[in-house]
Amino acid sequence: MMPRSNCSPAPGSFVRVDGTVLHVVQDGAGPTVLVTSGLACAWFDWDTTVPLLAPHGRVVRFDRPGLGLSAPDPRPPTLYGETERLRAVAEAVGAPGPYVIVAHSYAGFHAEAFARLHPEHTAGVVLVDASAEPAARARPAPAARLALARAIGGTFRLTGLSRPVGPALRRLAVRGFSRRGRDAGDPEWTRRSYASGRFLTAAFTENTTYLDQAAELLRLRDRTVFPDVPLRVLAAGGGREPDAVKARWLDRQRTLAALAPRGRCDVVEDAAHMLMIDRPDAVAAAVRDVLAEA
After folding, report:
1. How far is it, in rounded angstroms, from Cα 137 to Cα 237?
2. Contacts of 219 (CB under 8 A, 6+ apart)
3. Closest CA to 204 of 162, 261, 236, 255
4. Model-level pTM?
5. Residue 157: half-sphere exposure toward Cβ, Cα within 13 Å
6. CA-CA distance, 240 to 227, in Å (whole number)?
7. Domain spanning 13-138+214-293: CATH 3.40.50.150
8. pLDDT tens across 115-172, in order?
9. What's the per-residue H, E or C state across 24-45?
């Protein structure tokens, strides 16, 4: 159920996907553009991008379990689980495929895996400063790591510390990873989402499984090919990292684009990692290009 609020109702609707209630927001009409956010992020990251996309397609964005307004899921996130969640969300709201998948940061793992596993449902992919871990290896003791992540998150929830800590972490992330320095979404819903007792547990859980999923993707690459669909990689060239770190990151982004026969990497010099907040116009232009080529 949607949380009680004195402000206007949250946008979107709620659907049950594989036993978990997920928050989904839809805008526009036409070919389906399926949008998925980075680690510990939510639907409102795209609030300034969606108005530029809605005239060109049906934009479907959702919150993964425990994030935004979605209910938690007791099962740990995996590459294959998140990949299947993408299609399940689209099917639950009746959005027809094939899909153009737009993915930021960590969600890039899921978008690439989806294209490789379901080429018949993939019209194109746009990776927005996507995570790239070319030497990732699964970490030991996954059950213990997961239990610890959940215990830490639960402690914040039970003590009430999640209410100040979650929004504070969000503010730090936006200031550190966006040149714009202020959030894209409604301040009240941003605060409420990050102050929820669910958020920190979901964030710690995604973080502790991050390299495991990256390693799963490397194994998947060994036995599949990227389909012959347009791929656009938008790389943030305007972050605050040292030049050497930035150069390595941009090399990884170009390598991602080279994985696809129709891949292209565009460096956005005036944007940091939260590129959709800094340059929603660049994201929208990339999606429109992919829709035109699909």
Report:
1. 27
2. none
3. 162
4. 0.95
5. 17
6. 34
7. no
8. 999 999 999 999 999 999 999 999 999 999 999 999 999 999 999 999 999 999 999 9
9. EEEECCCCEEEEECCCCCCHHH
